[in-house]
Hints:
By secondary structure, the protein is mainly α. About 75% of the residues lie in helices and about 0% in strands. The protein has one domain (about 5-90).
Amino acid sequence: MTAGNLTKQKVIFPLILIQLISCIWYLMPSISHSHVPAGFIRMIIFGGIALVLLVITIILYVIYKPSGLIWKIPFIISLAMILLAWFYSK
């Protein structure tokens, strides 16, 4: 593993962590969004967070042009976040 790969991995790990924290936050309504009245509004808030994180992931992907499985994880989590926002709010 080269130094460049280690730098690329150091960049992606915080993004994966933020995505996972965001998913856990969304799944705990008593902590996160019990004050938000409607499921649709919750979907918009969480969907917005998911899309912002997806855009950041894409920008980093374009800048670093990485290879490897670790860089595919944020895209999988982003898809799960969008599906979660869509189905969990109903």
